[in-house]
Design a protein that fits this description.
Helices cover 57% and strands 13% of the residues. The chain is an alpha/beta fold. The chain has a single domain, classed as Rossmann fold, CATH 3.40.50.300.
């Protein structure tokens, strides 16, 4: 059963809205659902989130390592225990964001970013990645209040989008690619159909 589902995409793709809608459907079907966000979801993670998204500039490698630390804490403290008891986990971003944002966007290299995340995850990776695609222009226009990373500009978002596209191409068995520019009800329906097909 594919119960660890990550919602991915560039800024403004609609991840949070789709996650909320999927959680409601799963709960209506009688499942326990845990929604998490990255970075965040634990006391350590929320502290790092504030530094990463609203704090002073950090170097690309410091950024990547801080995301990895927050993620390891979340997996250990929340995600793995939830999966062990049979709950669904819907994650607003995951390790794949680091591969796309720091690996591709910051040009650290996806393989290098993957290596620094592996020890802290100990094999707990999303089983299904719902990648919501929107144009970088549309995604940036949707942002209500850009954070530090969301303020990096169009060229950065394009690099991140290219990173996500590459990941989806490399792992088609894990990724479900959905046009996030469509009406929300259509996006949610497509994501739900994908979960049912892979359950």
């Amino acid at each position: 059963m594919n119960r660890y589902v990550a919602l991915e995409g560039i800024e403004g793709a609609g991840k949070t809205s789709v996650s909320a809608a999927l959680a409601l459907r799963l709960e209506e079907a009688g499942h326990e659902v845990i929604r998490v966000r990255e970075p965040g979801g634990t006391a350590v993670g929320e502290g790092l989130r504030q530094l990463l998204l609203d704090g002073p500039p950090v170097t690309p490698w410091a950024e990547a390592l801080m995301f990895a630390a927050a993620r390891s804490q979340l997996v250990t403290e929340v995600i793995r225990p939830a999966l062990d008891r049979g709950a669904w986990v819907l994650s607003d971003r995951s390790v794949y964001s680091s591969l796309a944002y720091q690996g591709a966007g910051r040009r650290l290299g996806m393989d290098s970013v993957r290596r620094i995340n592996r020890p802290g995850l100990a094999g707990t990776w999303p089983e299904v990645v719902v990648l919501l695609t929107v144009s970088p222009q549309q995604g940036l226009a949707r942002q209500a209040r850009p954070d530090r990373i969301g303020s990096q500009g169009l060229q950065f978002q394009r690099a991140v989008a290219e990173g996500f596209a590459r990941l989806a191409g490399e792992e088609p068995e894990r990724f479900v690619v959905i046009d996030g520019g469509r009406p929300m009800e259509q996006v949610v329906a497509a994501a739900w159909d994908a979960l049912e097909a892979r359950a």
